[in-house]
Amino acid sequence: MNIAISNDTGVFSTHSKVRWRVCWENELQLAEHIELSEFFRKTYGPTGEFNAKPFEGGRSWAGARPEIRVIGYDAHGIAAHIGALRRFIKVGDIDLLVAELGLYGVR
């Protein structure tokens, strides 16, 4: 995906291509968890040290681990991430399957 953005001079700049990967949690290797951990520390750290703390030690999740992840990569590494976790909610007498989205971040 190429993104062209016009600046105030009318000149377009092209950002690097983003490659998207959809993967199940059990497909990630240790090195990928470490890279994600660093991405989350850099993404959440500016909002407060407490928000980056769960991602210390190579941990790439904060609470419940996502089951599936969508990760965007560019020439500089991880550029974006969102995770999903299946949940059931009760609606009347029916158990309804929904997705909880979280761990989102964009560099």
Automatic annotation (TrEMBL):
| Lineage top rank: taxon | Bacteria
Q: Which organism is it from?
A: Bradyrhizobium sp. A28
Which GO molecular-function terms appear in the entry?
acyltransferase activity
NCBIfam families per record: nodulat_NodA
Q: What is this protein called?
A: Nodulation protein A
Pfam families this protein is in? Answer: NodA
Q: What protein family is recorded?
A: Belongs to the NodA family.
Q: Please state the protein's primary subcellular location.
A: cytoplasm
Subcellular compartments: Cytoplasm
